[in-house]
Amino acid sequence: MNAQTLAVDGGSPVRTAPWPQRRLFGEEEKQAAIELFDRSIASGEAFGYNGPEEEAYGAEFAAYLGGGHADAVNSGTTAVYVALRALELEPFSEIIVPPITDPGGVMPVPLMGCIPVPADTAPGSYNTDAARIAARLTPRTRAILVAHIAGIPCDMDPILDLARARNLPVVEDCAQAHGAVYRGRKVGTLGDIAAFSTMFGKHHATGGQGGVVFTRDAARYQKVRWMSDRGKPFGLPPGSGNAVAALNLNSDELACAIGRVQLRKLPGILARRRRFAADLARACQALQTVRVVEAPPDCENACWFLFFRLDAARLRVDKATFVAAVKAEGIPCEATYLHTPALADWCRQHRVFGDSGFPWTDPQYGGDPQAVYELPNALAADATHFRMGIHENCGAAEVADIAAAFAKVERAYRA
Ligand SMILES: Cc1ncc(COP(=O)(O)O)c(C=O)c1O
Fold first, then answer.
1. What is the pLDDT of residues 81-100, one digit of tens each?
2. Ligand 1 pocket test, candidate residues 75, 77, 209, most atoms within 8 A of CB
3. pTM score of the predicted model
4. HEC sequence for 179-209
5. Which end of the chain has the smaller Cβ count within 10 Å, N or C?
């Protein structure tokens, strides 16, 4: 046995040191929480929601996106829900949804009585594009929801052109893409309304769970406020009753106090993630079979996770075997990111409201309740890529170890 022997075959792994801790929350967040409690204790008033911290967080979040209006809510899933509800769509509307995304990025659609229609990904990509969306439009389509997966922006200009030509609102799911830039514009500012997740695994967080709805349109923001807080008559004359029926999906003062600190850290977090990704791409250049997937040259990746294209045709093994060998070398990575909510059983079997199959099965829908939406590009993209969760504390040592592990496994398995 020598240094070339793969760890899966009993050799020594490239890396034995533990992966660095992310350390997302520190003394500053703790201090912000303590100050909130101190103020509450001194005044005798419990802190609540819609108070000064939430107002400030919303204003600072909007300022980060270049101006507009932001409403903090309690998760990324509810941010998508509120963003869609603010469009005031009628039940049975078809909404184009992302092919690959978290279930929380699609489940709000049937919960609103609407029909999720997934557009396939662009070839070789985890993101959809205008051509794939156009192929799924019907006279029943009422909105387009896109997600910038892994932090790489969708090619938005053609999507926005298509949406404008059909008079369809565009919702951006930016859960994975805080601070990503498309042709000089931050994602979230491109479409009509945007949803962010601020749960603890995202670029910046408001605590364990959280989300933000952002729009530049003041009238739409009023609807956002209604939809996240039981239809309370924000923006209506004093004495107005609740404007609509809606859930209580509010964030709160504690979450927003943490979020304000986190927002100040976001530029540094992004810069470190981008540097890591760029260094890793450079370190992988000499490899024959693995390439870091980077954003197009006119975009800036937010690098929520990294994914790699694997040219398995030049290997003696399949992707799963390659990735298992890399993992055994002490490098955390996963063979797949095949989260396709619209192909999942809950969606295909219409498991939303009891056994009714609503909204798909309702005669008012008018579309085919049994429609099967094939996603060949999404499946093909996933078959040729693997992924790695990264964070801003990954640095030069991790770059070196990842590149060394890829090189070792490639050497052992090259055809
Ligand atoms: C693209 C996307 N949309 C929505 C969500 C749901 O966000 P949350 O987990 O905060 O509800 C996620 C979560 O990872 C996501 O990645």
1. 999 999 999 999 999 999 99
2. 77
3. 0.98
4. CCEECCEECCCCCCEEEEECCCCCCCCCCCC
5. N
